[in-house]
Amino acid sequence: MVFTTAIMMVRSRGPDEFWRKRKIFKIAAHFSGRRRNCYSIAIKAVHRALQFATIGRTVRKTDMIDLWNTRIKAGCEEHGVEINNFKDSLSRCDIQLNKKVLADLAIWEPNSFKALSDLAKSVAIDYNLPGTEKYDKPSNVITRGLLKK
Amino acid sequence: MSQLGRVKQWNTFARCWHLFDAAWQNPLECSPTIEKYLKGLNKPIYHPLVDCGDHVVVINSKQIAFPGEEWRRRAYFHHTGYSGGATWTPAWELHDRDPTMIFRKAVYHHMKGNLFRRVVMERLHIFSDSNVPEEVMENITNQIPPLRSIPKTLSSYSKEEIEKYPKIIDYPEDFILSKN
Amino acid sequence: MLCNKLLKFASKTVQTVSTNRIAVAAASSLNARSFSAPISQEYVVDNTVAHKTFSDTIIQTVNEAVKNNNRLFAVVHICGKQFKVTDNDLVLIDGYWPPNVGDRIKLQKVLLVGGKDFTLIGRPVLDPDTVQVTATVVDKDLSHTRTNFERIKRKQYMRINFIRKEITILRINSVFITQNIDNRKEVQEMGRRVM
C-alpha cells in the first residue's frame, strides 16, 4: 500500500534553516556543553547573554566610577588627606581633572598625585574645611593667589 | 611577559605584612580597618577581581575591650551537626577558651560572604599576646595605628609625677584612695 | 614590652598648632565659645618677599628641568573626555569629530603636564603657548558592531538593534614645553580657552 497523504504533510521549514541557526551558534561558540551544540538550548542561552551584554554596558559606567573612587580614596590615604577635602580643595582651585584621570595619576604618577594632595591639604587648611585640624601644613606650598572670597 | 616585566609585576603585587596591636581596642570597631588592609583597599592598584590583599598580624588579642555589657550579652552560636549539638557561648567564656576567636569572628562576619572570604581570612594572623614567631616578625613592615587611644592607668605614673601633679587639697592620712 | 615599643613607633604625638589657626578656629566655632578662654593674639607675618623668592627658585628649577628634554605626559581634554597621554600614544574618540585622516592637530585643552622632575597643574587649563601637545589623525572608521538586545520574558517582546558609532583614532606625536613657564603674554585671550 502507498500512503501518499503522509508525504504531502511533510513541509519544509525553509531553505535557510542552516544559516539561521549558524548565527546563533556563532555567538554561543564559547558556551559549555549542550548550550553550544543544541539549537533550542543555545537560543535561550544566547538571548540571556545578549540581554546581559546590553544591560552591562550601562552598569559598566557606574562600576568604573566606583572603582575610580576607591582608587582615589586609597591614593589620598597614602598621602594623609581625606577624600572629601581633596575633592573640595581641587574644585576650589579650579583644577578640573576628572575621576578617571585622578585614579590613573594615583597609580602611574605618584609624584604628581603627591603634588596634588599637598596642594589640596594647604588649601583645605587655609579655607578651614572640617576635618583639617589634624593636618600638618605642607611647607612646600604657597596658597597666596589661590584663595578666593 | 619579559623578565623585567615579570619582576615589576612581582614588585607591584607583593604582599605587605602589617602589625596591629589589639590591646584596649574594640574588635567590632577595628574589623573594617583590618578588612581594608586584607582586601588591598589601601592600594591605588586595587581591583575587586585581583588578589592584591596584604597580611595582617594582630597581637595582644587577649586584651581586647568590649563596651558595656557586651562580654555578658554577646553570645556566639555553634552547632556540631549532630542532634542536640547547638550551643550558645557568651563572649567571656569563648574568650577564656580561645583568646583569638572573638577577633577572628568579628573580622569574618564583617566581610561579605563571597568566595574571597576564606582566602582572605587565611592572611589574618592573630596572637593572644605579643609572642610572635620570628619568621612572622621579620616580614612586618608597617603598623596600623590603633583606633582607640589607650588611657594611662594610675599605676603607670611614676611616684615623682604623682608628687609633682598640682593638688587643690590634701587627703587625710587615714583616707583609703586605692588598694595599691 | 613589645607593644609599648611598637606604640611609640606609630602613635601620633600631640601636634603644636600655630596661633594663627587657633584664632581663626575660635572665631568660627560660635557654639563652642567660652568666656573663660584667654584672648588669643594673632601675629600676622608679612611673607610676600619670602614667598616670592621661594616661588622664583622653584620656577627656575623647573625651567632647568624642562631643558633636559625628558619624556613628558599630559592630561588632555578632547570631546568631553580626559586622557592621560605621552608621545606615541593612541587615543580613541567616540562619536562625530570633524578632523580628517592625516590632519596634524595641536591640542588646546591641556590640564596637566608632568615628567620625572616636575608637574605643571593647570587651573583649569595650561597656557597653550607654553605647553604643546601635537597629534595626527590616524584613522576614521566605524566602531565594532554593538548588539542592542531587549527581551521581556513570557511577553512576546523581543527587539534587536545593531549600532556602529563613528570613531577617530589619534596618534599623539609629542608633548613638550616650548618656553620658560613664567613667560606669559601681557594680553591673554579669554573665552575660547576657558572650559
TrEMBL record, chain A:
GO cellular component, one term: ribosome
Family statement: Belongs to the bacterial ribosomal protein bL20 family.
Record GO terms (molecular function): rRNA binding; structural constituent of ribosome
Organism of origin: Acyrthosiphon pisum
GO biological process: translation
SUPFAM superfamilies: Ribosomal protein L20
Taxonomy, superkingdom: Eukaryota
Name of the molecule in the record: Large ribosomal subunit protein bL20m
Pfam families to which the protein is assigned, alphabetical: Ribosomal_L20
Keywords on record: Ribonucleoprotein, Ribosomal protein
Listed InterPro entries: Ribosomal_bL20 (IPR005813), Ribosomal_protein_bL20_C (IPR035566)
TrEMBL record, chain B:
Molecular function terms from GO: mRNA binding; structural constituent of ribosome
Any one of the GO BP annotations: negative regulation of translation
InterPro entries: Ribosomal_uL13 (IPR005822), Ribosomal_uL13_bac-type (IPR005823), Ribosomal_uL13_sf (IPR036899)
Keywords: Ribonucleoprotein, Ribosomal protein
Lineage top rank: taxon: Eukaryota
CDD domains linked to this entry: Ribosomal_L13
GO cellular component, one term: mitochondrial large ribosomal subunit
Family, as annotated: Belongs to the universal ribosomal protein uL13 family.
Protein name stated in the entry: ACYPI007195 protein
Gene coding for it: ACYPI007195
TrEMBL record, chain C:
Protein name, per record: Large ribosomal subunit protein bL21m
One Gene Ontology cellular component: mitochondrial large ribosomal subunit
SUPFAM superfamilies cross-referenced by the UniProt entry: L21p-like
Chain's gene name: ACYPI002597
Family, similarity comment: Belongs to the bacterial ribosomal protein bL21 family.
Organism (species): Acyrthosiphon pisum
Domain of life: Eukaryota
One Pfam family matching this protein: Ribosomal_L21p
One term of GO molecular function: structural constituent of ribosome
InterPro entries: bL21-like, bL21-like_sf
